[in-house]
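Subject: for your reference before the review

Hello V.,

The reviewers asked for a structural picture of the protein, and I figured it would be easier to keep everything in one thread rather than splitting it across files. Below is the amino acid sequence we used in the manuscript, unchanged from the supplementary table.
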Amino acid sequence: AALAFFWLTCILFQDKLVSFFAALLFVAHPVHTGAVASIAGRADPMAALFLLLALVSYIKAGEKGLSLLGAMTVAFYALSLLSRENTLVLPFLLLLYHHIFKVKIRLNKFLPIAAIAILYIIVRFTVLSSLMPHLVVETTIFQRLPGFFAALSGYFRLLIAPLGLHVIYGKALFDWRDPRVISGLILFGALIITLFKE
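And here is what came back from the structure prediction:
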């Protein structure tokens, strides 16, 4: 996963020294302890590896126009989704890549990725939820949304000060008035403004 991260940063920034130190930080940062110290965390590095390889092959496919690389992107994305569900973010990461690096979207490369994501969501909420009814959580997306912002502020803190590391962080549901949610909202707003300001 660290080598894939190194490869991706080399492609994006064209600087092997910066990429090397970024990959060193990626592999040595204490926040990743939970993913490698326990066998149950093996899904995290697997998902990261396949997601990073999907990003690399997508960028290379856009540069070279090779359909084989496009097929590899779809395969790596499918493997990442089978490893961990949170890799559904790939289409959004690709849109972010196109925005930041001013690269024109090639629909023949992007649409298969979006189709895989949509197909996974449909299967997840139909077939898989009927096969595992005991895992269905009876909450709305609005009830779970504050948790996203609380996690954002929590992980930002852990990146800067990785203290008090453990496997499970916090509770499942948060109140909108929770300071962690409010700070996460502020952080999210700052990120959006930074990314989309002209």
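For the response letter, the relevant points are probably these. The longest helix spans residues 107-131. The CA atoms of residues 65 and 143 lie 43 Å apart.

Happy to draft the paragraph if you're swamped.

O.
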